[in-house]
Amino acid sequence: MTEPMEDEKTLAHLQLFVVGDEPHSKRARENIVEVLGQFEGHYEFEVIDVLKNYRTALDAGILIAPTLLITTSNSRITIAGDMEDRKRLVGALKLIAE
Amino acid sequence: MATQEPSYEQLQQQLAEAKEVIRALRQGEVDAIISERELALVRLRATEEALRKLTAELEDRVHDRTAQLEESNRRLMSALGELRAAQTRVLEAQRVTALATLAGAIAHEVSSPLMGVLNAVAFVRRHEQNPELVQALQDADEGLRSIVAISRNLLALGRPPERRGVRARVAEALDRALAMLAPDMEARGIQVKQDLPEDLPSVAVDEVRLQQVLTNLLTNARDAVEESAEKIIRIRAFREVGLAHIDVEDTGPGVPAEILPRLFQPFSTTKPGRGMGLGLNISRSLVEEHGGTLTLESPKPARFRITLPLARNVGSGAR
Hints:
Oligomer: heterodimer
Strand order of the largest sheet of chain B: 2-3-4-6-5
Helix content of chain B: 55-70%
Number of strands of chain B: 6
Number of helices of chain A: 3
Low-confidence stretches of chain A: 1-8
Distance between the termini of chain A: 20 Å
Order of helices and strands of chain B: HEHHHEHEEHEE
Largest sheet of chain A: 4 strands, mixed
Low-confidence stretches of chain B: 315-319
């Protein structure tokens, strides 16, 4: 895993757990992709479809989909649902970027 | 799951995450709940879906293959049917051609002695005084003339068709045919009614042949009405796009159902001892040679229809 002091900027790992192209999953993905434009270089982003990769979601302790799991070397934040509230999303990402 | 007791921070973290999950659930922004039990269901659903797809695919393939097989089967059957029909036509054509050749040859051989006998009879008739003998000679003369007519028909059968540029006026061919038959018909009390449009165009057929066909049909009609109370023969012509139809109908008893299948076959006759049963067969061949058809439009009243292509307009002479 990434060492904490490797870079000045903390690199965040973003995992969006979705269910195929189900409506909430789709909306969540769209919202995140739009917001992420502002935070380029601060994250790795991957989308995990629980229909194909259920075990990863279970192991990560994710309870519902869609859920965005943001992890850094020393913190973990989850945001669930459509992520229609962009401010919360941006706030969480800023917190990580700082 | 950690076997150690969770730290305060970990508990705080779990609480925050649980709150977030509850919030999303309350807002109904959830597509699935992740749990071991759900995992099993998801897998089951995926398997079911895959199975369903596979089954549908297999059914589709079976269906397609069946349809293909049915189609090729249908084509095969229809090709077979056509082949059989073609074979029958070829056999029939060969038979008719052979008959025609034979009949033509006989007619040719018979014609010279026939003319000799005809002349001899005419000569004796001119010089004979005994009325009974004159009557007998007249009968002989009539018989000979009808043999000449048969012989001409047979000769025509053996001749190759003339096709190019031929044209006939229906009214004229009919007049000529009737001229030969009219005295006889009058004597038998047969009425002939004609309905020919004045502007009927010429048809693409040799006029002598058309006359011959009309003579055949009129002779048949004449014989048919012989025993009827009402003795009427109706001839009606009319045009359609590119075609002319000539109907010959009589008030006779109609064509018996058992005759219908072989009506146009050679040597099929309802008049034993009076003809060879070649009339309709020859007539049909003559009409077909010119790209026309001869059909029985109605068995009762008997109505025959000659259909011929119209002659192409050459200059302004055609009418």
